[in-house]
Amino acid sequence: MKPVSSLTTAEDITLVNLRDIPNDLVFFSEVLGVFAAQKINIDMISQSTSFSDKFGVSFTVPGDELEETLTIIAALREKHPNVKLSANGGNAKITIAGEGMRTTFGVAYTAVKAMSDHGIPIQLITTSETEISFLISAAYLYVAQDALKACFDL
After folding, report:
1. Can you give the pLDDT at residue 142?
2. ∠ at Cα 49 (96, 128), nearest 5°?
3. 0.70 cut: is pTM over it?
4. Helix H or strand E segment including 58
5. In angstroms, how far is CA 130 from the centroid of its own chain?
6. In this structure, are strands 43-47 and 131-137 parallel, antiparallel, or unpaired?
């Protein structure tokens, strides 16, 4: 069984970064609640490890929700001025998946090396046992597709 059996992409993705969040998750749960109330789908959630009373988190939202996202961020900045919030659009998500990833070592290494070998900066990575998703600038999408297809024989 091949470790990676599929590659999918999504375009027009916005990356949202929050830094210096109080380390009690109350604030972040409120943020998620605001996005949910606005019916904005959040994807690729990645929390950084906390070594203090603060932490950071990144996630993605659909690009067509950028205006609403910026409105939410502006309101959050007013309510929580110490939290650093930013958003940037013009990104794409590329996901490799396969059941064989469960038992194959080095899939992440192979994928990241392929991206590195082609000069593709990775903004965010999320994983599961059977998927790895990369957020990259949309300008690199076709190069990333070709690189990953080549190294996983897709």
Report:
1. 97
2. 20
3. yes
4. strand 54-62
5. 16
6. unpaired
CA–CA gap between residue 13 and residue 86 (Å, rounded): 14
Q: What is the mean pLDDT of residues 62-86?
A: 88
pLDDT greater than 90 at residue 118: yes
Contact 6, 96 (CB under 8 A): yes
- pLDDT for 134 equals 98
Strand partners, 6: 97
91 contacts: CB under 8 Å, gap ≥ 6: 12, 13, 14, 15, 60, 63, 123, 135, 136, 137, 138
Tabulate helix, strand, coil % of the chain (nearest 5). 40, 40, 25
Structure letter (DSSP) for residue 129:
S
Which structure tokens are listed for 49?
């490890």
- Chain-centre distance for alpha carbon 125: 6
- Listed range (20-29, 38-47, 94-103) with the worst mean pLDDT: 20-29
Locate tokens 């994807």: which residue?
A: 43
